[in-house]
Amino acid sequence: MTRTTRRSVPWRFAVPAAIAAATVGAVTFGPSAFADDSHPGLPDRTAEQLVAEVAAARTDALTGTVRIDSDLGLPTLPGKAGGNGPQALLSGTNKLQVALDGPDRQRIGLMSDLAEYNVIHNGRDVWTYDSRTHAVTHGTFDGGRSDVASLVPTTPQDAARQLLDLVGPTTDVRVEGTGRVAGHDVYKLRFAPRSQGSLIAAATVFVDAKTGVPLRVTVDSVKGGKPAIDIGFEQVSYDKPAAGTFDFKPPAGARVEEVKPNEVRPALPDTPGAPGKSAAPTGGHVEPGLLGEGWSTVVELPAGGDAKEAARLMGKLGKPVPGGTLIDTRLLNVLRTDSGRVFAGAVDADTLQRIAAQR
């Protein structure tokens, strides 16, 4: 029996497919990887102990280079090829630079050939800058915190926290050996759905043996092949970044768009099935509806905004199915019903259509 819930949505997706939109990047590079073939001898840890360590891990300060390998099997998005935005991460190998200094300062930067894209949060200010279009957005927060990590999950820690939300009766959690990531000894913590219907076969979190910080996350599809998502640090330091890291001044001649207080969101193109939300929603904002539970959670997009964008793409990318139009990938399905409603989830087509029909 599906149900609608008001629990919080882990930013752009309510299911582990969120990792598909976890970060931004467009620089491909050689065969070096975050992990090596080492299997260090580490003290035994139970799955319960590792889950608790990950949940308790605190990384108030961090700098590093994150690499993302994506093989989602997404159809080509019209007009997106060669862009300098997060659509680049949907296929191939990409990387970005990330710096964190507590809840009030974060910087996410990507480089792509002669272009760059940055999201900078410093105190009450949040900026985005796209050098290719020479466009800047700026917003401020009247209260609370912006937490760019909630706007754009950019590290394995953010991806792992979404997996921790799934720990419960519907999830099998076990320790599957040890390894090394970015020069750090790690435990491999595997999450897998116990019920059928999910497109995710399993997800593995590589946990820093000393700090409990997730340094890498891989997501395997039930359709086989290499991981659909592999996001991890190539380099990482827990040292405090220099204060100037979070300074930003719009370049001369840049077009600056001011957004209303508490409504800032990075100027990132939406992708099918990626419901966005403001960092601090105002009373007029409508959250996506969540249907089902655990690995079979499905998002119902609110009318307008993301739903309108998804519906527009359906005509170009989707295929007809009974009762609507479907975009089918290795890790995410998006359904637009004949009545105009849009549903998305990391579930197979039959499950998605069944849950949509119950609405």
Could you characterize what this model shows?
The chain is mostly beta strands and 359 residues long. It has 2 domains: 12-258, Clam (outer membrane lipoprotein receptor (LolB), chain A); 289-357, no CATH class. Helix content is 12%, strand content 35%. Strands 8-9-10-11-12-2-3-4-5-6-7-13 form a 12-stranded mixed sheet, covered by helices on one side. The longest helix is centred in the last third of the chain and has 12 residues, at 306-317.
Give a short synopsis of this structure:
With 359 residues, the chain is mainly β.
Estimate percent helicity.
10-25%
The largest sheet, given as strand count, sense and whether it forms a barrel, is:
12 strands, mixed
Which residues form runs of ≥5 with pLDDT under 50? 1-35, 78-82, 144-154, 264-285
Q: Please indicate the count of domains.
A: 2
Text of the CATH class of the largest domain: Mainly Beta
Structure annotation, total helices:
5
Order of helices and strands: EHEEEEEEHHEEEEEEEEHEEEEH
**Arrangement of strands in the largest sheet:** 8-9-10-11-12-2-3-4-5-6-7-13
Category from helices, strands and their pairing? mainly beta
State the separation between the terminal residues, measured CA to CA: 11 Å
The fourth-level CATH homologous superfamily of the largest domain is: Lipoprotein localisation LolA/LolB/LppX
Q: Which topology of the largest domain does CATH recognise?
A: outer membrane lipoprotein receptor (LolB), chain A
**Radius of gyration, CA atoms, in whole angstroms:** 20 Å
Average pLDDT confidence is 74
- Overall geometry comes to globular
Counting copies of identical and different chains, the oligomeric state is: single chain
Share of residues in strands: 35-45%
Number of strands: 19
Q: Please name the CATH architecture of the largest domain.
A: Clam
